[in-house]
Write a structure and sequence with these properties.
two-stranded antiparallel sheet; five-stranded mixed beta sheet; 53% helix; alpha/beta
């Protein structure tokens, strides 16, 4: 059902699979209710003190007439987990604070100095300060950029997106802050509302720069993309439901979809992981390590195999067909010479 097949269409789809079971839509629905309820209990009750947490990402989304707030945690090893979800009418401080305290009761370290990534919601921001205290908060740079350019005419927005993106791309706090201040002065002459939007919470968009970890962690934590992708995939998996009857139905569907997505998560990316991926290539160029196969078996290419420190060429490296024809002629030309010598030796 999470793959897009409705109960009404399940019987027709299952006829193509001889091993299919539960052809009646009522039996499929009952099985899904039991499985999704079990997944919801697992998500809401599992312990969170079995890992070393490094970051917390919060985001809300309009869902079936309500607001759904999801918490995503990232461990010190880059593993991503869904911590929990809450259904609310809006992203207000009271609800989000109670949600965070419930995570703490399950073992999430609220007294630890975590990196918190937010999209700029004032209610979520106030709740984080009330529960987690003076933790470093990274405001989403993408949301900040889009908020600023929304005050500008359509034809000017692409240029200002590029300017803001270039300013945030500076690796050090000082360079990024000076570039953004120059843009703020320029915006003040062009559009004061856009300038005020840029100035609001500007320092929190540079938290990774201020902590001197932007080159390492910026690729994953400068925006809320990690959880935005979760929200978009959640919408894709639940779009076939057109009539939501109860709150329990909403929560079960969301929990089931989040459980499926969590098992497909990849580890968070950073500069160290990119270096690890690039290291074999550098070692190959330096000659310290040979990969098993390089390139394709085509004319002018070669396969390189590493065995006991020796390199075996499996294909001619230069010349293509022309050299092979010449090589063949040389072989044919030598054959009569060798035969003459052999005959001379016999005589």
């Amino acid at each position: 059902m999470l793959g897009g097949i409705s109960c009404r269409e399940y019987e027709a789809a299952a006829e193509a699979v001889p091993e299919a079971f539960g052809l009646a839509r009522s039996s499929v629905s009952r099985r899904f209710i039991r499985a999704s309820a079990q997944e919801l209990r697992r998500l809401q009750e599992r312990r969170l003190d079995d890992a070393e947490w490094a970051a917390l990402i919060l985001d809300g989304k309009a869902f079936a007439g309500d607001a759904l707030v999801v918490a995503l945690g990232v461990t010190a090893t880059g593993e991503k987990r869904i911590l929990g979800l809450v259904q609310t009418a809006s992203e207000n401080k009271r609800v989000i604070a109670a949600f965070l305290r419930a995570l703490g009761e399950r073992g999430f370290p609220l007294d630890q100095r975590l990196l918190v990534v937010l999209d700029g919601s004032k209610g979520v921001h106030a709740a984080v300060r009330a529960v987690l205290g003076d933790v470093p908060i990274q405001r989403c740079q993408w949301h900040k950029r889009e908020n600023v350019v929304s005050y500008l005419p359509k034809h000017e927005q692409p240029a200002w997106r590029r300017k803001l993106q270039a300013a945030y791309a500076h690796p050090t706090y000082g360079d990024a802050k000076r570039a953004l201040e120059r843009l703020h002065r320029e915006l003040r002459l062009r559009n004061e509302s856009a300038a005020d939007s840029l100035a609001e919470g500007l320092d929190e968009t540079l938290t990774l720069h201020r902590l001197n970890v932007f080159p390492e962690l910026g690729v994953s934590f400068k925006t809320t993309n990690l959880i935005e992708s979760v929200m978009s995939r959640l919408e894709a998996r639940t779009r076939r439901v057109t009539h939501w009857r109860t709150s329990d139905q909403k929560m079960r569907w969301c929990a089931a979809a989040l459980g499926v997505m969590e098992r497909q998560f990849r580890r968070g990316r950073g500069r160290d992981r990119r270096r690890a991926r690039a290291r074999p290539r550098r070692q190959f160029r330096d000659g310290r390590r040979r990969s098993t196969v390089v390139g394709r078996p085509r004319h002018g290419s070669r396969h390189i195999c590493s065995h006991a420190g020796s390199t075996v060429r499996a294909h001619a490296s230069t010349g293509g067909h022309h050299n092979r024809r010449q090589h063949g002629r040389r072989q044919h030309a030598r054959a009569p010479v060798r035969s003459v010598r052999q005959r001379a030796g016999r005589r």
